[in-house]
Design goal:
This protein is α/β, with parallel strands linked by helices. The protein is 43% helix and 19% strand.
């Protein structure tokens, strides 16, 4: 059995198409198909359900695929550990991040790159479900995500911070001079919020409901950047996670107002896969994360924008 055959199988399962899988592996489609047939012959089991087109894997094929992910991850780990012994960590750290945590990713990736200048980082914006799949299939080394979305599965979790929600509102708005605001008061403002498919928005809607209110935003966005793009100019208010202040700050002409209610939202943390011990790259990122104290950095930033309070 060759590692290349396992790489072809992983690509085929990912692309679900022989031609696309071959292109991803930089080989011809006949070469890829022949290699997988040889793998079936060597293992003595059918791996691919074949028809006029790719129809998925057999039950035996799913078992082989799981082992293929594991074996290839072990190969990568061996390379990384040897590279570290030769004088520095190399390779590419594959980091998945839920969209609402992306503004804080640099708090980990910048010190990681400073500590390991020969390593690279590849960041993907992914949903919680995609992150769980990527970690289980060894397609990701680590992820920044909501910790309650990654229970089970043998994953390691390191808490980074708890989301805290504040109101961004125009300086000439009705709540601009308030020391604090209620969620029901915020719901009455012209709002720009994340879309309802976003986990952060569903959490915020629960906070509005707990204060007997329902938010009806005039503008919804599926990205934090899209939301922030509408805030300068004084027309809209928004409820944001304090973590977003790290990247986007407070737009001109707006003010941060604390919201009354639960001080903390769900926990965001760094999660690594089920491999034991973790890969060299994942272990290196965990070490950086433990030293970074992301929670304190974000809380201090929020106090700065609140004028030393909060």
């Amino acid at each position: 059995m060759l590692l290349r055959q396992l790489e072809y199988l992983v690509a085929l399962a990912r692309e679900r198409h022989f031609v696309r899988a071959a292109a991803a592996c930089y080989v011809s489609q006949p070469s890829l198909s022949a290699a997988i047939r040889r793998l079936e012959h060597e293992l003595g089991v059918p791996i691919v359900r074949r028809g006029r087109r790719y129809e998925g894997l057999t039950p035996e094929g799913e078992v082989v695929l799981a082992w293929a992910h594991r074996i290839l991850a072990e190969r990568d780990g061996l390379r990384q550990e040897l590279s570290e012994l030769r004088g520095g960590l190399t390779g590419t750290l594959r980091l998945g991040v839920v969209p609402t945590a992306l503004p804080t990713a640099s708090l980990l990736t910048n010190p990681f790159c400073e500590r390991h200048p020969q390593a690279r980082v590849s960041i993907e914006s992914l949903s919680s479900a995609e992150i769980r799949h990527g970690l289980a299939e060894f397609e990701l080394d680590a992820a920044m995500t909501y910790l309650d979305d990654t229970r089970g599965g043998g994953l390691r979790r390191l808490p980074l911070y708890e989301e805290r929600y504040v109101l961004l509102t125009p300086v000439d708005g009705p709540l601009a001079t308030a020391a604090t605001a209620r969620w029901a008061q915020a719901a009455a403002l012209p709002l720009c919020l994340l879309g309802p498919r976003m986990r952060n928005r569903r959490i915020i809607d629960e906070c509005f409901a707990a204060d007997g209110a329902t938010a009806a935003p005039a503008i919804e966005s599926d990205t934090v950047a899209g939301l922030y793009a509408h805030l300068p100019g004084g027309s809209w208010s928004s409820v944001i996670s304090h973590a977003w202040l790290h990247m986007f700050g407070v737009p001109d002409g707006m003010r941060v107002v604390p919201l009354e209610g639960p001080a903390h939202g769900p926990r965001v943390g760094l999660v690594t896969g089920p491999d034991d011990p973790p890969s060299v790259l994942a272990a290196a990122l965990l070490a950086v994360a433990r030293a970074a104290d992301v929670r304190q950095a974000l809380d201090e930033l929020l106090r700065t924008y609140l004028g030393g309070h909060g």
